[in-house]
Design goal:
Layout lengths: L8 H13 L4 H8 L3 H8 L7 H11 L3 H11 L1
Length: 77
């Protein structure tokens, strides 16, 4: 059985900063990424480790590349 990975606090913090910089609510961000508000909130609160496809969808919803998202995460460390 596969083991779940822990959530990455740097990802949650980066997403919150990116969202707030765009003056978006969690609801708006989740809608742009086509994921549920509950899922988006759990990612920001570091309650879950999202799947790769979910991270890509969030980046696309923010209108940024995966590289830009990675850089934002790296700045959190």
């Amino acid at each position: 059985m596969a083991r779940s990975l822990p959530a990455d606090p740097a990802l949650g913090s980066a997403l919150r900063e990116l969202r707030e910089a765009r003056n978006l609510s969690q609801e708006s961000a989740s809608h742009a990424a086509d994921i549920t508000l509950g899922t988006y909130g759990k990612i920001e609160r570091n309650e879950v480790a999202p799947a790769w496809a979910t991270v890509r969808a969030i980046a696309a919803g923010f209108g940024i590349s995966m590289r830009e998202l990675g850089e934002a995460v790296d700045q959190q460390d």
